[in-house]
Write a structure and sequence with these properties.
Layout: H1 8-31, H2 36-48, H3 54-63, E1 70-71, H4 73-78, E2 81-83, E3 90-101, E4 107-122, E5 126-128, H5 148-157, E6 161-165, E7 172-175, E8 180-184, H6 190-204, H7 214-232, H8 245-249, H9 253-273
Parallel strand pairs: 6-8
Antiparallel strand pairs: 1-4, 2-5, 3-4, 7-8
Helix pairs in contact: 1-3, 2-3, 2-7, 5-6, 6-7, 7-9
Length: 281
């Protein structure tokens, strides 16, 4: 059977329609950030899917905030699992390279990359072989001591030293004038020190009380800390995702997206320092 040929105009119109639908879907996902619950769902999703892009974490959080592992239909089959009949797919964006064509429909020899929606499914939507689960370690232990050195090196790359002092009313602080990160001496467990260090490192990335309100700054750095600790495999159960309160819920869409992107950028930088790199779409 011969393949139906479409004019360049029809192909362009079809692609524009799809791009419009995709933009609307992403905008709906961004609007979820305007509520404290939506912000929390995104942060928890981002901690779970640290290899996925900012946009795809938004889409997963909107469609399936309970998801823990996602993959395509055939990918699950290759892992010995089968998507159950009737399960509704989660739509995320994936890059696709296609041959470029000129106005007459002939190939130009070049390739262009665009993004299209693709279906994935959570492991809870599948049956089959059990898969290993990454353990979550408590904040009170020392299992993550290995991350203190790379986090300290990351602080140095930002021009900061990491020191320990006796503090009366805080577990740590970031002194942007003297470029010091201080952790309370009584924070003994390595995992707890990692937790405090990540929080203060987020401040060292430029989230201060001059450029942000105190409330905004603390929400941004604490969200980044919860995300990074979750990505590292620390059990953050009981660690609160801060409420965005009025500055988010009564704010505009562009501002809240910018704050979320700042969180994502900071988290990725700290994750990379801990060698949590490599990525998916």
């Amino acid at each position: 059977m011969s393949r139906t040929a479409y004019s360049a105009e029809k192909r362009a119109a079809y692609r524009e329609q799809k791009r419009s639908e995709q933009r609307e879907q992403v905008e709906r996902a961004v609007r979820e950030l305007l509520t404290s619950d939506g912000w929390r769902r995104w942060a928890e999703t981002r901690a779970t899917f640290h290899r996925y892009s900012f946009g795809n974490c938004l889409l997963i959080a909107q469609q399936a905030p309970q998801a823990t592992q996602v993959a395509g239909f055939k990918a699950w089959q290759s892992l010995g699992r089968q998507v159950r009949k009737g399960e509704r797919a989660i739509r995320i964006m994936a890059p696709m390279s296609v041959k470029e064509r000129d106005a007459t429909g002939d190939e130009t020899g070049e390739r262009v990359v665009f993004f299209r929606a693709v279906p994935v499914f959570d492991i809870a939507q599948t049956d089959g072989e059990p898969l290993p689960q990454a353990p979550r370690e408590p904040i009170t232990g020392d299992s993550h001591a290995r991350y203190i050195e790379p986090l300290t090196a990351h602080a140095a790359s930002l021009g900061y030293t990491v020191e320990s002092e006796q503090l009366d009313h805080a577990r740590g602080y970031c002194d942007s004038k003297r470029h010091r990160i201080v952790i309370a001496a009584d924070v003994g467990a390595a995992n707890a020190r990692v937790r405090v260090l990540v929080h203060e490192l987020a401040h060292a990335h430029g989230v201060n009380y001059r450029d942000y309100s105190r409330e905004q700054a603390e929400v941004i750095v604490e969200t980044a800390a919860v995300i990074v600790c979750g990505s590292l495999g620390l059990d953050t159960t009981g660690e609160s995702i801060p409420y965005i309160a009025e500055w988010g819920e009564n704010g505009d869409l562009d501002a809240i997206r910018q704050h979320a992107e700042t969180v994502d950028t900071i988290a990725r930088s700290i994750e990379q320092a801990c060698s949590l790199n490599g990525g998916e779409s």
